[in-house]
Amino acid sequence: MDYINRLDNFDGSDFGEIVVKAQLYEEAFAVFKKFNLNVQAVNVLLYNIQSIKRVVEFAFFVEEDAVWSLLGNAQHEAGMVDDAIELFMRLKPA
């Protein structure tokens, strides 16, 4: 995946979606992460790679409310209600 880090002159969002359609999920995550498209990166982790654990790690890395919100919803859907409530309590009021 080093080639993704070396590429610069492309639209990260469009390229990431193409990579997802090609079922290259780790590469898609790397593209979205590189271009700070954090919501798209989380969606790849949740719906394609299916790893809530990695989303938790990523959420602490980016510290973004939209990412925390997606994580809380995923935890709630997975039956991790206590964790989801704790996350929603850390979100800043709108």
UniProtKB/TrEMBL annotation:
GO MF entries: clathrin light chain binding
Stored Pfam families: Clathrin
Residue intervals passing through the bilayer: none
Naturally occurring in which organism (per UniProt): Kingdonia uniflora
CHCR repeats: 1-84
A single BP term in Gene Ontology: intracellular protein transport
Annotated Gene Ontology cellular component terms: chloroplast; clathrin complex; Golgi apparatus; plasma membrane; plasmodesma
Name of protein: Clathrin heavy chain
